Automatic annotation (TrEMBL):
Domain Alanine dehydrogenase/pyridine nucleotide transhydrogenase NAD(H)-binding intervals: 177-325
Keywords attached to this entry: Oxidoreductase
CDD domains, A to Z: L-AlaDH
Protein name: alanine dehydrogenase
Domain Alanine dehydrogenase/pyridine nucleotide transhydrogenase N-terminal: residue ranges: 32-165
Amino acid sequence: MSTELAGLTSVGLIAKESPLQVKKGAKPLHVGLPKEISSQEKRIVLTPESVGLLSNNDIQVVVETGAGLSAKFSDQDYSDAGAQIVYSRKEVLSADVILKIDPLTVDEIAEMSSGSCLISALQLEKQSAEFIRALNEKKVTAVAFEYLEDKVGGMPVVRAMSEIAGSTVMLIASEYLSSVNEGKGLILGGVTGVPPTQVVIIGAGTVAEYAARTAIGLGANIKIFDNHIYKLRRIKQLLGQQIYTSTIDNFTLGQALAEADVVIGALRAEKGRNKIVVTEEMVANMIHGSIIIDVGIDQGGCIETARMTTHDAPVYQVHDIIHYCVPNIASRVARTASYSLSNIFTPIILQMADLGGNEEMIFNYKWFLRGVYTYRGSLTNAFLGRKFGLNHKELQLLLAARY
């Protein structure tokens, strides 16, 4: 029995995996899709096809006008699917469940209904204690994309966006290696009689897997570094090739970086924030005109010279090395990413409606419970409590008190 389940047992509450009976007479679930206000964010959580499915199951979906335009979904598409299109942001924010990519602002949280549910990215590096306090004042149950698990312990949103980022990152590298972008003037890959491009990938997770697949397909020579041997062994098996792999140490990594044309920072944060493994000295020793892409910059990154950039101004140079550090790479392919997100959240909303609301989801499914970081006026995530100097309470104990 896991530690979490053992804790629940001790207070007489066990998270179930079989759904409760639908509550008779329960009001239909009301879901709101606000428009993203950041010019950098072009994705939307639900596609019109998913909205049609939800509408057919008596789930009311309210969409703010223009919410899907950046992903090439029109208001008419959503209206035809059964959604209500509204021009008032306040009306959308009054829904039982808000589905959004970027977290809400403090002012937007004030417009939410007390006791409602927010499902969005947390974006830890951008958050503050004020954000947490605003959620708690409204007694909002907040669920973070990054922490959600599936039934087998994986993180579906993180994996889906990592697959997209990994596949896209080599296309970005190719852009900035070209002469038209004042790069080294190299083709990403190789041609007959010319040495292949040298790619170093730091991390051996999902981003690394998909980046490596793309690089190998183009003919590049890749080296993958990670401090977890099982991850290195797994990625070799997944790629089906005898590629270069190594644990991370300053000498070996430094040598690889000195010869690299492309460096991908793809380390996954552990305990909230990444560790720096590429120092400024290592960057200074790289070949001029090479490119660094730090995919994990939203969690601090793993490269000392990396700092967060935007889609409007994605690159800068340090020691004549191009740095691309945009946190939401998947937003470059907003329509693909929206379909991927919709595939994940449509079943979740259907389950929530069947059970009667977000609280029943938390009580019945521990994989959903893991995404919760505020619950009815209390912070329930210990790491966030330490980061912002706020008190936190164990969610299992709060649930036990209610039930």
